[in-house]
Write a structure and sequence with these properties.
Layout lengths: L1 E11 L2 E10 L4 E5 L6 H8 L7 E6 L2 E2 L7 H4 E4 L11 H11 L6 H10 L12 H13 L5 E5 L7 H16 L3 E6 L2 H5 L4 E6 L2 E7 H7 L1 E8 L2 H7 L5 E6 L2 E7 L6 H5 L3 E6 L4 H4 L1 H4 L6
Parallel strand pairs: 3-8, 3-9, 6-7, 7-8
Antiparallel strand pairs: 1-2, 1-4, 4-5, 9-10, 11-13, 11-14, 12-13
Bound molecules: adenosine-5'-triphosphate.
Length: 294
Amino acid sequence: MIRFRNLTKSYGTGRGVFDLSFEITDGEVFGLLGPENSGKTTIFSLLLGFSTPGNGWCSVDGRNCHDHAKDLPCQIGYLPEQPEFPTAMTGLQYLRFQTAVRERKSIEKGIRTAQRLGLNLEEKITKLSPMDKKKLGIAGALVHDPRVVLLDEPTRDLDQAARHCLAELIREEKEKGKSVVWASREFEEMERCCDRIGMLRRGNLVNIDDVAALRRQKRQSYILTFSSEQEAVGFLKENVEVQGVCGSQVTVAVTGELTPFLPVLEKYHLMGWEKVHQPIEVLFIHYYGGEIRG
Ligand SMILES: Nc1ncnc2c1ncn2[C@@H]1O[C@H](COP(=O)(O)OP(=O)(O)OP(=O)(O)O)[C@@H](O)[C@H]1O
């Protein structure tokens, strides 16, 4: 169980994290969703005991993270956004080193994780691609079978196969009763793994909800391509939120379920549609007030 009580770390001029109070239970995958600079990494550094809170506290299994900072490496597995490694080592040597530092003997779990991710542990770390370094970071975060797993942008640099494998690995940790915290700027990545998501804006927790509830609130834009400009003009009379028109293409915004929107489309000759990639401030305009920076 991870607990936050009035946790505050201020770097001045409104930067940091402020008055966080919530819990993450055993067997829960909790998402920390926020744009750049919203405080995700600061929360991790407080959980890891790397930095001192200005006010309040956080704890892992009843132990205050600041007071028990020395014990935390054995309890917590951490994948930074851009993991760094001792370059002279091979992946296998790195896993052995991580295990020894955490006073564990077996590196089996690390080896199995690397195998499942398709990582060659005999390779020197200097020769690894960014994706392989991320895979080694994942194996290193799990090698000592920690109670709590902290993942900072875990899918960045991973291809689809590795993302799928990571989702499976995290599901298995959840089933074993571990608490997992998954921090990201991308909702889509988190929604297949997380049970609940906390939304951060400028260091404040603006909302906590389960993933299904957030899906219903998500505002998504699509570019619709009609068979002709005339069709597109006809479509503009419908009761939909139009964001832009360009010839036979119309951009619309839809909140929540798509189903009510489908009968409207059936009346027209639709040639294609494309989801517009949007930052979370736009997906959840309600929480971020439409601002493009956190
Ligand atoms: N050591 C520090 N000294 C001063 N300011 C800091 C420090 N660490 C973080 N900050 C500031 O605190 C705020 C939160 O930063 P943090 O790195 O936690 O955000 P983040 O959500 O992890 O961002 P990103 O998604 O870009 O990794 C930012 O405004 C950042 O500039």
